[in-house]
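I'll show a sample.
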Amino acid sequence: MAQAQQKVQGRQGLRGRLRRATGAWLPRAGKLDAGEVVLKQRRVFILPTRAGLGFAVLLAVLLIGSINYALGLGFGLTFLALACALVDMVATYRNLAHLALLQGRVAPAFAGQEVQFELQVFNRTRLARYAVRADFANVAEPRHVADIAPGTHAILTLSVPTLQRGWLAPARVKLSTHFPLGLFNAWSYWRPAARALVYPRPEDGAPGLPLGGGSGSSLRAAGHDDFAGVRNYQAGDSPRQLAWRQIARLDPSIGGALVSKHFEGGGDDELVLDFDALPATLDLELRLSRLTRWVLEAESRALPYAFRLGALRLPAALGAAHQAACLRALALHGIDEGIGEPA
């Protein structure tokens, strides 16, 4: 019994030493790579392909035949082919080594759409790179192939389908190459420290905007009733509110600036997008989808709108910044911002 326990402990100790030794040399698979990453020796792996294994069998047959029949020409052919294979191995490795990877832009998307992750591959060496393939590691066949001249870079856009709102963290990116002869496959993994924000899917066939106290029938919004004069332009004013005639009369040399038309009245018709005002019988995700649709519709119609979701209270405004703040709140409602769903 004691001997069996000693054997088990010995195996566990050996596994631990191997794990520590390989962990010190190999990059950790789950570690996020922040900033620029250079594919140095410890990040590039290389193994023979099926064609390479078949070529090795052919070399073995040639060598055995040359030995059995004492064929000098056979020896020459065998070692020439072996030299070509070794050169191909070095060339395949160098085709991937010392490339620099940098995460590019990541634009938000709505659930059901594809998120586009931009990947920049820099070649700062004097060696041209050919047939560099890139895609997420969970994709069977890479969808992107790039040739990168010396001193240039390639921009690859990797797409990921989305199913639900929240943060979406991309899977590991795999770069690989078979160039030049296809006898060896060199590859490397990269885990970009990036994530995309996925907004709720806008509801199809949603009711009209809750204008006029929620009736949805009025076409007026706050501040769009009676003309009361002009005022200085404020961020969020729509182009329809700009007083173009007065702007044309202003002299830029004396401090002329943009001015907007000012309306009064209609206080009861303020457009408020309130999560709590929606029917409680609706599912949470459906209510978020409806608010998403209303935010987009209010922006398209240039109607300033207030937004209320939980403790968040945004005053009536309009514009890209206001829309982004509302959509972000809808996307992350009830979700820990530090958690990212893996792609």
User: Anything to note?
Assistant: The chain is about 30% helix and 30% strand.
